[in-house]
Amino acid sequence: MFKALKEKLKNWFKKTEKEEIGKKSKHKVDKILIEPIDKIPEIELPPEKERIIEELAPESEHKQVREEKEGKKSIFTKVKERLTKTEINESHFDRLFSELEEILLENNVALNVVNSVKDKLKDKIIGKAVKNNKISEFLKERLKDVINEILVEPFDLLKRAKENKPYIILFFGINGSGKTTTIAKIAKLFLDHRLSVVLAASDTFRAASIEQLAQHAQSLGVTIIKHDYGADPAAVAYDAIKHAKSHNKAVVLIDTAGRMYTRENLMKEMKKIIRVTQPDLKLFVGESITGNDATEQARTFAETVGIDGLILTKADVDQKGGTALSVSYITKKPIFFLGQGQTYDDLKPFSKQDILKNLGLD
Ligand code: GDP
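That is the input. Now the predicted structure with guanosine-5'-diphosphate docked in place:
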């Protein structure tokens, strides 16, 4: 994940170092060389000005010598300042950003998220005087700040589950996104941490979904509560919670339908399951590779039924990674895990630090 985006960002930083700043410095040198020295505006000396002047030309020296030295010092500082620092203005920023914009869009970052990144960066960059040889570093730091603001750090799920028995998690997501596989992976994670699990087969709509979940339950050695196809999904979930309570089980993982006759039907059903189960956590599962599709689905679920967090699957086959930024920005909720393959252990806890590192921004 993020391989393509990381590479592009790296090239972009390199480019800003070489081209933009080289041009700018040369232009500045030219300007300074053709401008008469007295046209160069006064710049402020640091507070210790008096002390510096005194060291260069003590009071006892002749006035003219003293003024010369003072003049030399200020012009030297002035020229040096102008040669070594660049104040990034709006047009410079726009030129720099147009390329970054393309990179982000190409890598699955949604347009409104790109625009927000632009506004945030602009605020942090325009008008700031930056040392010429540090511009690329400065841009990198500011982009890191912006991404840090967009991503949300998840809480410690295992700790939370240990504190609330039974801990009820409801999974949403459209068919094929990897929801059932992810539920099995999460079940394995809880089992590995000695938390017992009950699965609820509340997708009673899609053919084979119950058998698929039952297969995982058997492989993992956990209880599954299931009814027939067409049964009320909320009733299945209710029974699973009842079972967990009476058997002192730690966690209930509820699968839900990913498709129904209409989207309205699906959302109505999700709302009913939420009402009946009062889950501790509502997680949206989406495919990282689908980019804008996953972002739109996450937005729909977040706005219609409300979600507390996300899991992005198939991160192992996603070179771009922009979906993570988009869904975080749109939902303002944390990503808890990245699905990184088809086995039970292919589940990677999400952390902001890892993402920044993967983007080459650490
Ligand atoms: P559901 O319809 O949302 O329940 O999706 P499934 O759990 O049945 O998964 C659909 C397909 O995606 C299956 O072939 C899974 O093995 C595969 N899959 C799920 N998660 C991942 C993942 O993280 N990486 C990869 N490469 N494949 C995955």
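The first strand starts at residue 85 and ends at 87.
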